[in-house]
Amino acid sequence: MNTPCPSCGSQMWIDELLTASSLTNPCFGLCCLSGKINLPIPQSPPQELLDLITNHDPTNALSIQFHTNIRAYNSLFAFASVRANYDPQLASGRDGVSTYHINGTLYRCLGPLRATDPAQASFSQIYFCDENEQTTRRQTMFTGLDENIIQMIQTWITQHNLFARTLRTASEAYANQTVGTI
Ligand SMILES: [Zn+2]
Fold it and tell me: For residue 20, what are the domain limits?
């Protein structure tokens, strides 16, 4: 992959060039449709979170804690559960690389928007709770996670994630009403 797309700069295989172009003046469609698609650059995470993600300092206890439990932190902030008929043998990684192999359809499952008991809220239901309830619920979902890291991620998602903000707005709008299953 040593040929940059002249439109977006993606590194491409030369054999991926559009048939309407040439080896001396290659154009590519897989990346940006020859410049027709121009996505905004994603917003950078806050420096604290970026440091946690990119800093693998073995002497930094917080960094070790985050990387050891990164899947748990990710699960805390998922909006939906995933259901699929997958092969647990391949996914275990016992016989080589862990491979997520599914058969059939992959589902994203959502329950009612509001949990009957905030202490039992899960996935998007957590975003429907107020800030303090969210923190409390997330701290009880897994053991051994750092409260400050949970709080930092929650604050950032609350401020910048469109889905989280939408759920908070809906929660405030329907505060005194029964909200059913979607
Ligand atoms: Zn391109």
Answer: 1-39
